[in-house]
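Practice set, problem 2.
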Amino acid sequence: MSLAGKHALVTGSSRGIGRGIALKLAESGVKVGIHYYQNERAANNTLEEIRKRGSNGFVIQADVTRPEQISGIFQRVKSEFGKLDIFVSNARPEVPAFFHPPLTITLEQWNTAFDSQAKAFLLGVREAVSLMGDSGRIFAITYAEGSRTGGLQPWVAMGSAKAAMECLVRYFAVALAKRGITVNAISPGWTEDSVMNTLPQQAQDLLRNWHQRGWTPMGRLGTPQDIGNVVALFCSEQASWITGQLIYADGGASLMNPEVPPEIQLN
């Protein structure tokens, strides 16, 4: 599928899921703005890989919890590309900045989650649409399970912030529908080469074993490439009638019943 001539911005695209999205878009002919917060080397490596795929782009550093820096990102997009066709809001702070249970979480940690997700998405979309013509594509990368469950207690701030972002997706979808701009949320499951790899090795092993033995019906964890494929698919003209939706890209993990062992469900 060719998206040649399109221009995209993917926040948090120096590594992980954001990188997978950026590389897939590049394979489809899209020029990509690579945003990072701390890891410049990784961002430059992503740009190098984009060029190997026959496309191009640029690298920009910014803190998406700061509104003036969000504005700066889009000023650079305008300077480099002159327009924008695809905006993917993917950036997330490092786990220690927000990962704390509800009874003891600080307001600073809470605000970091909301500023980087709901607020950054609100401001980012408003900036993006000023550079978009008709038929643009906007995506919020979320984790829907964390928005509707409460078992992973230290995820409270991020889960709440992602839920607010998912709500914004629906409001923006209605607001931009007459311009032909679609707005959707993509919810990956546990994904290799992403935040999961920052967890202690024991936790990683437990997650992999749990999903490989059946919690993900397809028998494996997702990859950044899997999520890139979904975003590219929804950038096509054939997806122009789909907007305001929460798309699970998790190999079927969200279909499982948490009250029943996977060995029973898959028999």
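Problem 2, part (b): a different protein.
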Amino acid sequence: MAGSRISPKMKVVFSEIFYPGYADNIAADDGRMEAIVRVIANTVDFFEADYAPEADISAVHDPEHVERIKRKKLYTISSLAAGGAIQTARIGLTEPAFGLIRPPGHHASVNSSLGFCYFNNMAIAMMKLKKEGLIENCFILDIDLHYGDGTVDILGDYDWTAIYNPASIIRRKYLEDVKRVMSRVNVDIIGVSAGFDAHIKDWNGFLETEDYRKIGKWVSQAARRSGSGCFGILEGGYNKKVLGYNVEAFLEGLALY
């Protein structure tokens, strides 16, 4: 997209280890990450993702669940995604950041893995910040087309966490709802489970590319108003022809911090 407005200081946590397919599902398709990198490579600063310690994963997932992921031979790639989410959240405490990571995480619950998700990256990251005393509270906005049931399962009962999954499938109403909710947020950090499958050219979606820029801007404005941090991590989004431009638009909005 010509005339990108992403700040050169925008940090994106990523690893080329995420490039190859790791499973037989749409989230693990070859070329998905490349489609994003091609669009944003010249306008962001990449930082190498690191693996999450097992203790951080076990802080939100049962030991039996962790062992199941190991038996499926998905632990290594999933722990890299979780570690990338933690790094992104740490950066987000002081400046906007994005975790270009996979496998996605928002369907992974305490003891189950659904929807191509194995470990809940967002929950692991927020729990890490909380346990280290870096935040008192947080807000999670999940803009994936599909409800982030795993995140709600893990964090939904904690009084220090608020989670919002927009419910409308009507574009105007969806955007109005997100803008209204974000205008009221006042927390230490805002995390966005940034799925892009709600795009009109993706998975039976209804949003336009420009809408992701608006959402990023509203998140940035909420963070600036409350003196908090903000970050996003990749969830869904599968049409490689538009995925990179949708991520770019979101980052442009988020960078207005």
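Answer key, part (b): The chain is about 40% helix and 10% strand. The chain has a mean pLDDT of 95.
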